[in-house]
Amino acid sequence: MSSVMDRMNRAVEVDPAIQTALEQPEDTAPRDPFYMVIMGVDTREGDEVSRSDTLIVARIDPKEKTTVLISIPRDTRVDIPGEYTTKINAAHSLGGPALVIETVSEFTGLPISHYMEIDFNGFKEMVDALGGVEINVPQKIVDPKAGNYDPNAYTIHAGPQTLNGAQALTFVRSRNFPLGDLTRIENQQIFIKALVKQSLAMGNTLKLPALVNALADSVSTDMSASELLKLATAMKGMEEDGLETISMPGTPETIGGVSYIIVDDDAFADIIDRVSQGLSPEPGAEVGVTMPSPSSITVTVRNGAGIEGVASDAAGRLSAAGFVVGEVGNANQFVYDETLIVYNDDEAAAQVVQGSLGAGRPVASRGMYSFQSDILLVVGKDWEIQ
Fold first, then answer.
1. Does the predicted TM-score (pTM) go above 0.85?
2. Do 374 and 343 meet the contact criterion of CB atoms below 8 Å apart?
3. Cα torsion 371, 373, 374, 375: sign
4. Over the stretch 292-314, which tens digit does the pLDDT of each residue have?
5. What are the structural domains of the chain?
6. Which end of the chain, N or C, is more open, meaning fewer C-beta atoms within 10 Å of its C-beta?
7. Using CA atoms, how far apart are residues 79 and 101, in angstroms rounded to an integer?
8. Helix (H) or strand (E) run with residue 76 in it
């Protein structure tokens, strides 16, 4: 740990003879497996404090040419050393990369020896250095904020395509989905697999120097440009199944009015144990964040629009999707322009309702609404009857 701390905050210095690194003997490349924390830091225009929006623990084995990436949700509740119990993404603002590494090491029990901090603002240059990245986009994305309000970048249609740097930034940055950060993690894993595959392809060997130059403007790490090139060269030829991605298992929970992801300790320990042995992380482990099923969620539906039929239409769609629908009636006032999905303590249930309906905005009740069910759906004037 101390060696990492000593080299902390030293940005990549581009070697003036980068090409020489590619010509050095293969035995100069790292051989033993090691662990690295990869942080995606979002410093959007107008924000005073950068946010650690992406957190990945990577086990890299140059000899076997394998890599395992473990995604940890930004809302994971952890004990931050020397601070307090809060969301894991707070570690970056409280103590920078050093505290992130210490927090992740204690949380996972893994010996972290390197770190890489990627500023999303410079991310697109890395992608453009590769000539774009081929992605099969799972679903359409419309997110002006994620695309820096560039009309050529914030809309991405579903299907196979080559994303340029600006589009790739939207793809990995957007949380504009019913399941928010959980879908974003899935998209990031899709993208990383494609990016690594193209970076290490035989035809891209000559692009590695340009890629490292692009990295220099957007990445801080304790590894030099020469070390990065040697590692990339050592990993060249890695098979597609040599890269595995997995998400930390957990469940959403609201504590003190704050939404967290609570790790499943047993399942996560199984993943860490397998990964540390160089085994596939998936067998025997239920991965990802577990959301409640519709059949376990009770919903009250009220017409807040004053438009005939919207409440019954919403109730019918919820029942068909498996939700337990109770009272269906009118709100006290017909003043709701927007459909609201109101919850008391279970934000995850509200997210499941939103994902099923493809409409509505989850909001915390905070005592402003009276209902006995898990969820209150107030149908607004934006509702479209099907």
1. no
2. yes
3. negative
4. 889 999 999 999 999 999 999 99
5. 2-276 (3.40.630.190), 294-379 (3.30.70.2390)
6. C
7. 13
8. none
